[in-house]
Amino acid sequence: MDVAAVQSLLIERINSGVLVVDEECRLVYFNRFMESHSLLSASEVIGKNLFDIFPDAPKRWLQRKIQSVFMLNTPAFSSWEQRQFVFKMRHARPVTTSSEYMAQNITFIPICDKGTTEPDKVGIIVDDVTDVFFYQEKLKDTLTELEHVSRTDGLTKVSNRRYWEERFRVEFSTAQRHDHALSLIMFDLDKFKLINDQYGHQAGDLVLVEAANLVENLLRKGDLLGRYGGEEFGIILPNTNAQGAAELAERIRRQFSLLKMQYEKHTISATMSVGICECDSRFTRFEDMVTRADLALYQSKREGRNQVTIYQA
Amino acid sequence: MNEITLTEEQRDCLQELINVAMGQASDKLARYLQTFVHLQVPYIELIDSEVLPERFAETYAQEGVSLVSQGFYGEKGILGESLLIYKSHDAHGIAEILGYEPDDVSEVEQLTDISSILTTTFLNGLAEQIDNQLAYSAPRVVSSMETPLEHHLQQLSFNWDLALKVDISYQVVDFSFNCDMVLLIPGEAIKNIQKVLDQILDEF
Amino acid sequence: MNIPVLICDDSTLARKQVKKSLPSNWDVEVQFASNGREALNIMREQQIGVLFLDLTMPEIDGIGVLEANHAEKLVDFTIVVSADIQPEMQNRVAELGALAFIQKPVNTTKLTEILQQYGLL
C-alpha cells in the first residue's frame, strides 16, 4: 500500500475543509470539501491570495492569526461560539437547519518543511459545525421559552404569583435602600362567583383575561401586573406615590366598569374593588405592603364595591 | 494511596526546564506582540484533587475573574490542562495587539486568542526540551463575568487524586495586562513526566 | 596548562548542562557553585579563568556577582547563561563587564562559537 497516496486521497476527500497557505497568504492547497462549499475550483484559487478568494473574511484578525502560527510555531484556533464563520460558505444542511452559512471550528497548524524547525506554511482545517450551532440555537430558544413559561400565568398571560413576588422583593429592597417611592395596587373582581354561577366558568375565565388585558394596556413601562390568586391581581408601581397610584387605579376601575365583554350571546359587565398601599420606611418586607393594600381593598368592598381606597396608617 | 513524590533532582530538573521554556516563550512573544512579556519564576507542587477547588477559590474567588482552559497531549503519555486566569485585563489593549477591528467586541474571543498564544508558546518550548511534540485542544472559556468561577468550582469532579501543578504568572508590560497560568498534569501523566525527567537526568 | 572554569547556577541540571556543553578539546578544570555567595567565595580564594554565570539565583544573584566582580576585578572572562533574556537585563549585564550572553538552553555549538570569538579556544 502506498501510504502517501492514501493520505493525500483522504485529505482530498475528508469531510472537512483543508487549505494551505504560504507566508504571503497565497493558497497552495485547497481540498475538495473547500471546492464544493465555496463553489471555487482548486485550479482557479491556487497561487491566489487568501483574502482575494474570501473577501468577506475578517482580514486584519485573520492575518494576525496566521502570522502568530508562523512566528510562534504554534497552532491557533477559532470557534463558532465566538465567530460563527471565517470563510463564508454554504453548508450541507440547507433543508433541516435554519442558518444560511456554515458554522465553523477552525484549526491553524504550522507546517515545517522536512528537516527545518521554522514553519514555511500554515495548514487550515475547517470543520463544519452547523449542526452543533443549530441545536445550540434551538436549545437557547427553548430555554428562553421555558423561562417565560415558568413565570407566566397560563390563563391571563400576566406574571404568575411566584415571579411577581420575586420581582416585588427586589423592587421593595431597591426602594428602601435608595429611599425611592413605591406603591402597590391590589384589585379583586366584584361578585366573581356570581359571574361563574350565571354564565359558567368559561365566562369567568374570559372576564379574568379581559381584565388583565385592559390593565396591561394602561400600565407604564416598569410597572408589573401579576395574578395574585383566583380573581385577585397586584400591580407593582416603582417610583410612584399613593397619589399617582390612586389616579392610575381610578382610571383602571372606571374603564373596566364600562367594558362590555361578549360571551356567546351574553354581554357581561363587571367591576373591581381596589386597595392601594404606598411604601413606608418602617416596612421591613414587601408582604407588609400586600397586607395593607388588602385591608384597603376590603374596605372598598365593605363600602359598596367598585371603588378605590388608599391605606391610611 | 498516593505514593507519587518528586525527588529533589526531579524537581530541580523540571524547574530548570520550565525556566528555560519561559525564557524562550517571552522571547518569541516579545517579537510577535512587540512588547515585553515578563514570566515569573514558577511554583511547582503536587496537589490533591480534594483541595484544588478550595485553593482556587482562595486565590481567585473575587469578582470578575475569567478562566480559559486548554488541553494538551503529547507522546509518552504526557498530557494535562492549562488554565489561564485573568483577574482583570485591559480588553482594549489585547484587542489592539491581536488585530481586532474596533467594532469586534467579543471579549471572550480575545481572551481565548491570547490564552492560546501564551499557553502554546510556552508549552511548545517545554516540549522541545523534553524532545516531545504536543497537540492542543481549542481553548474554552470556563468562567467569565457572567458565570462566576465559584459557581463552576462547585461542579468540578476529578477522575484523578493527585496532579502536578505549576503556577506561572505573565505580565505584558506595555498593555497593563497580566494573568496567571496554572498547568495541571494529572494522575498517571505525573509518572510519565517523571520518567522523562529521569531520562534527562541520566544524560548528565 | 588547564584553565580553571567556574560554573555558577542554582540548578544542578543547568550546571551539568553547561559542563557537558564545553568543547571536548578545551582543557579545563571545572568547579561548581550553586549560588552567588559560593561563587564569590571561590573567586576570591582562587584564580578563575572563565566564569559561567546564571542570573536568577538565591542568596546573591548573578547581577550581585557581576557587581562584586566589577569592583574587585576577580575574573576577566564572564559569560552569562540565562533563561531571562529581557533586553534591559542584557544591557545591564554588558555594562557590568560580562563578555557574552547565552540564552538557555546551552549547547556546544553556541558555546564554541563564543569561546572562539574571544580567543579562549
From TrEMBL, chain A:
Residues 180-313 form the GGDEF domain. Its EC number is 2.7.7.65. Transmembrane segments: none annotated. Its cofactor is Mg(2+). Coiled coil: none annotated. Pfam families: GGDEF (PF00990), PAS (PF00989). It catalyses: 2 GTP = 3',3'-c-di-GMP + 2 diphosphate. It is an enzyme of class 2 (transferase). One of its GO terms (molecular function) is diguanylate cyclase activity. This is diguanylate cyclase. It comes from Catenovulum agarivorans DS-2.
Automatic annotation (TrEMBL), chain B:
It comes from the Bacteria. GO terms for biological process: chemotaxis. Keywords: Chemotaxis, Hydrolase. CDD domains: CheC_ClassII. GO terms for molecular function: hydrolase activity. PANTHER family: PROTEIN PHOSPHATASE CHEZ. This is Chemotaxis protein. It comes from Catenovulum agarivorans DS-2.
Automatic annotation (TrEMBL), chain C:
CDD domains: REC_CheC-like. Keywords: Phosphoprotein. Residues 4-119 form the Response regulatory domain. The modification 4-aspartylphosphate is found at residue 54. GO terms for biological process: phosphorelay signal transduction system. Gene3D superfamilies: 3.40.50.2300. Pfam families: Response_reg. This is Response regulator receiver domain-containing protein. It comes from Catenovulum agarivorans DS-2.
